[in-house]
Design goal:
The chain folds into two domains: 92 residues, no CATH class; 79 residues, no CATH class. 49% of the residues lie in helices and 10% in strands. A two-stranded antiparallel ribbon has the order 1-2. It has a two-stranded antiparallel sheet with strand order 3-4. A hairpin with a 2-residue loop joins strand 1 and strand 2. The protein is elongated and about 80 Å long.
Length: 188
């Protein structure tokens, strides 16, 4: 006997996946999180149909989960008085936290980001002199390390909305595929 092909389920999974990716990309754009475009371009999906199951795998750059769920800061109370984020934890419920202030990943990412944005340096409020770009990068890195990164939910929200939106369509598609399998004498 032949195996059920799940053609209808596969079609609905395709619709669901396209919806999630399109909404996720829109959210990244709306949130201003398209700096280099790497995360935006990396969003994709694969649909797998195995014996008795149809699955959708969503794909994105590894750091996408940090952009989506945020990163807990080490201790926002350690920021200097007058700092914008002093005492404010940007992602208090995030499962992620930074490894350490000296970790190369965050410093390198901030370095690339300041270069991409064309940020040259900032003026010292006391002296009026420009601070070197390395100093600016350090200050940004320290602020992010201590206060964290805010969760955008750019992917999680569309995924959850999509599940609700396509739930009935999935159920109907599954029923049609099983019915077709019974009529054609297929097995699961």
């Amino acid at each position: 006997m032949a195996t059920i092909t799940f053609d209808n389920v596969k079609e609905e999974l395709e619709n669901f996946a396209k919806y999630v990716i399109q909404q996720s990309r829109s959210n990244l754009t709306r949130e201003g999180k398209v700096s280099s475009g790497t995360l935006y371009k990396s969003l994709g999906y694969e649909i797998e149909v195995e014996e008795g199951a149809a699955l959708v795998n969503f794909l994105m750059e590894g750091y996408g989960k940090f952009v989506d769920e945020g990163v807990k800061g080490a201790n926002p109370n350690k920021l200097p008085q007058g700092s914008k984020w002093k005492g404010i934890q940007k992602a208090p419920t995030s499962p992620y936290k930074f490894g350490g202030m000296k970790s190369r990943g965050l410093k390198a990412a901030i370095n690339r980001w300041t270069v991409q944005k064309g940020l040259k340096g900032v003026r010292d409020k006391k002296t009026g002199k420009f601070l070197p770009r390395k100093t600016m990068q350090y200050l940004i890195t320290r602020s992010i390390y201590l206060s964290g990164l805010r969760a955008t939910m750019f992917f999680s929200k569309p995924f959850n909305r999509g599940q609700k939106k396509y739930f009935d369509a999935f159920a109907n598609a599954f029923a049609l595929d099983v019915e077709k399998g019974i009529i054609l004498g297929s097995k699961l």
